[in-house]
Amino acid sequence: MLKEGMKAPAFKLKNQDGKTVSLSDFKGKNVVLYFYPKDNTPGCTLEACNLRDDFPKFGKLDAVILGVSPDSVESHKKFAEKFKLPFDLLSDESKEMLEKYEVWKEKSMYGKKYMGVERTTYVIDGNGKIKKIFNKVKVEGHNKELMEALKA
Questions:
Q1: Which helix (H) or strand (E) holds 149?
Q2: 56 contact partners, CB below 8 Å, separation of at least 6
Q3: Are 22 and 128 in contact (CB under 8 A)?
């Protein structure tokens, strides 16, 4: 089980432009790694737009933002362009990274069980260690929580 203080699992995924992105690309920087269920859905759009709006503030805290979902590179490209997102969205169609980061879980909606992404954010420090884990994220006010964690 992943815990704060542990080394964050390495990853290599394609972003919305088809470029490979890995955790090691950000050595020395804080990484806000947020996992979300699906492009172009109300909660995920609000979360992405909140991060977009506060993007300059994250930069001042020496942090990069990476969004991850099981959507395709093409879906991410449309989503990023539609909402002018200034950060990378990583495609994990194989769900390998989602499983490594323990966010691919059984969920339930209207009594029906299915597998999906549990909205979770990891803050990773410049040495690749997990600084903070936010489970079952509530989108409203999450940016402020993230900034506090980065300043801590």
A1: helix 142-151
A2: none
A3: no
93 by Cβ neighbours in 10 Å (0-12 / 13-18 / 19+) ranks as middle
Tell me the one-letter amino acid at 27: K
pLDDT at 18 > cutoff 90 = yes
Computed over every residue of the chain, the mean pLDDT equals 95
Amino acid at 81: E
Residue of 117, 114, 115 lying closest to 98 (CA atoms)? 117
So which residues are the catalytic ones? Answer: 44
Over residues 62-117, the pLDDT tens digits come to: 999 999 999 999 999 999 999 999 999 999 999 999 999 999 999 988 999 999 99
Instruction: Spell out a b/e string for 43-55, using b for 16 or more CB atoms within 10 Å of the CB, else e.
Output: ebbebbebbeeeb
Domain 28-151 class?
Answer: alpha beta
